[in-house]
């Protein structure tokens, strides 16, 4: 059975509460959703029943995610929580349940199945570049334009991504 990794959007959408499958998340996501557990104790019930496991990803898997997200141009868009669920997905060789497009893009570049919740999800993984709207020059890192000083904007690269098209699957 494939490990199902849940990000915060999964909890907000109620996925772990309506599924009988075991899910996994990280301590950072657990902290992010703490207001859910305070008001209903629902998350704690999932833990007590063994339907939710909270695992801290190992540093070597976090390093893999950081390197890949640098290559795709997505690093500046990822939160610590996003990086942690991606690292856990790598560690457990799982599938990721999320509606976050940036997280989905990095997961697809890592060749992991992404299960969208309330959106159609992404159809293909893309590499990103940072473009200056004034100079129309592309750069690899998010910053201000070194030529004119304008704020760079993230956009999809015209070059073909090395990842396969996204496969979709319903979770309910």
Write up this protein.
With 172 residues, the chain is of the alpha/beta class. It has 2 domains: 112 residues, 5'-nuclease (Rossmann fold); 37 residues. Helix content is 38%, strand content 14%. It contains 8 helices and 8 strands; from the N terminus they run E-H-H-E-H-H-H-E-H-H-E-H-E-E-E-E. The strands form 2 sheets. The protein has a 5-stranded parallel β-sheet with strand order 3-2-1-4-5. Helix 6 packs across helix 7. It is elongated, with a radius of gyration of 17 Å. The C terminus is likely disordered.
Question: Keywords for this structure?
Answer:
alpha/beta; elongated; three-stranded antiparallel β-sheet; 172 residues; five-stranded parallel β-sheet
